[in-house]
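Records of this kind hold a single protein each, on a pair of labelled lines. With that in mind, the following record should read easily:
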Amino acid sequence: MKRSSDSSASSAGDHEEMVEEEYIEDEIVDDDDDDYMEEEYVEDEIVDDDGRVVEEGEQGEQGDAAEAGTPENPINLEDAHEVGEDGQDQERHEEYGEESDADTDGEGQDEETEDVELGESGELLQAREDPSGAKFVAERKPRKSQCWFWLCCFFILGALGGAAYAGYWLTEEEEDSGDRAVLNSPTADPGPTPAPTVAAVTMFDPIVGSCDALGEVPNPIDQCACFGEIQIIPEDVAARYDYHLFSFISSLYNGDWVVTDISDCAPQNQALVWLSSGNDFEFSSEEREQRFALATLFASTDGPQWTQQQDWISGWNSCRWFGIECQGDTVIGFSMEQNMMKGTLPPEIGILQNLRDFFVTRNDFEGFIPESFFTIPTLQMVDLSFNKFTGPIPPTIGDAESLVQLNVENNELSGLLTKRIGEAKNLAMFEIGGNNIEGSIPSEFYELTGLKVLDIRGNRFSGTISTMIGDLVRLTTLVLGPNEFTGNIPTELSELERLESLSIRRVPVGGRLPTDFGDMLTSLRELTIVDTEIDGLLDPSYRTLSDLRILDLSNNNLRGTLPSELGDLAGLEIMFLTGNLFDGDIPTDFGRMTSLKELRLNDNRLEGGLPTELGLLSNLERLQLEENEFVDRVDDAICALREEDLTTFIVDCPGQDGPELTGVICPIPSCCTACV
């Protein structure tokens, strides 16, 4: 505070002045960024000895000194140094400056403020007693405007923080609720994809399969069976249907969806309308696709009339439906053998991209095998046998790189065998018998070197049996007829050393019976060459086929005598040599084939008597010797077999052809069962 020197002296002698309150206005400048910090005011109230406050007008000669202490004339800290030039004030400020050096923490303070003690924010804390006896007291007083400012700031920040926390808490709750909904769903990964405005919707009634027992919301499949169209569709189902058309069907069909009206009874539309109902929102995208594909199959094959249909077209996960096998929640198997399925196999079956096994033998399928079926990359085992499939085997079979077994026998397939068959490199079993496939077998087919079973019987294949067949070295079963092959039996068949069963039946091939069969095909258990035009002798080398159980060489042009070496085939159970040109006697060594159950030598030119050694065939069940030139009486040892397992024994009836006796004398029924 700045005062004149004579004013200070006169007031010091008369009374003691008490400074009750002063405000110092000061600008504190931060050393770092020169930002304005705050203002302080110092106001002096001068009190006389009686405690009366001296008014501004009464100060008299104090003049500028009194005026300098008013709030209108603030004193900054720089002025305090000027005060130090006059008398006692200088001593007082020097004393204060010394104590300020000792008490302040020095943070952000300039040396020019040594005459007072300041707080961290720059306000005056206290003053010391004047050496002359005048009492100068400065008390810290809160700055009301600044306090209210900070209180308002804290209040606003607190309100904003509370609002932010509330928003965060609500968001977390919503996310947690969503997570719980997914985890409670049948499939949690990937998450459900509900319609944007519709959650749970109306559930159609279960399928009843009768028009007399329909409920209020009949199943679309029942509606199509009874009305020929889908007439009853709740609004919320229609809304979800529209959503599925946009978000689901468009991704599956790429613009090929042909249904134009929600009431359409196409199997695909029946499936989609049903899919748009009930708890569809709970299912993952994968499960929705599976349900759609299977529901389409159900609608395509008269599902309500299936023998077994438990849980089909219901709210249950499709893995619970009858005949469905799953790995996790993924469909990998479909097994519906002999289940009265009638209709077509829809192309939507190709949606099941993880399907491995598909068994529908002995149903009533018709129409083409869809090309999409063989585009399933995981497809391994397929049995479509004993149905009414038509058309060719689709060329997409070349895409079925995982396919191991394909059985389509006993259908109505036709056309040529596609060249792409050779691309199904893992194919091990190929059974297409009992169809109308025609033409020659493409050379690409013989690239399937992993084949173990090849059955092409009952078709119209033509041309020759390719010598490339010897490349299929892993074959264990080969069935080539009936077909329309011509030429000779290729000797390259002898290279199939793993072959266990060889059948060439009703194929107009000729030439000789390959002699190498006996030396090379030592694994054979069944050899059937029937109704061909082969001729020549039956080579004795066939005696080495020790594993042979069935030998059927019926209805050919084989001639000569029966080799006695065949008696070495001790394990042989069936031997049919019917309908050839064999002559001579029955070898007595045939009595050593003790495993024989059926022996047919009828319709040849055999002669002489019946060897007694045939009585050693204790396991024999059928013996046919008719249509030969035997002349004899049946030995009792042979008749004794009738008391064992022999149930059929047929010979030529005795008679007379001119002067010569013919036939066999055999009591009926005690010995023979019939004579001709």
User: Anything to note?
Assistant: Residues 1-144, 168-197 have pLDDT under 50 and may be disordered. The first strand starts at residue 18 and ends at 19. The CA atoms of residues 94 and 402 lie 102 Å apart.
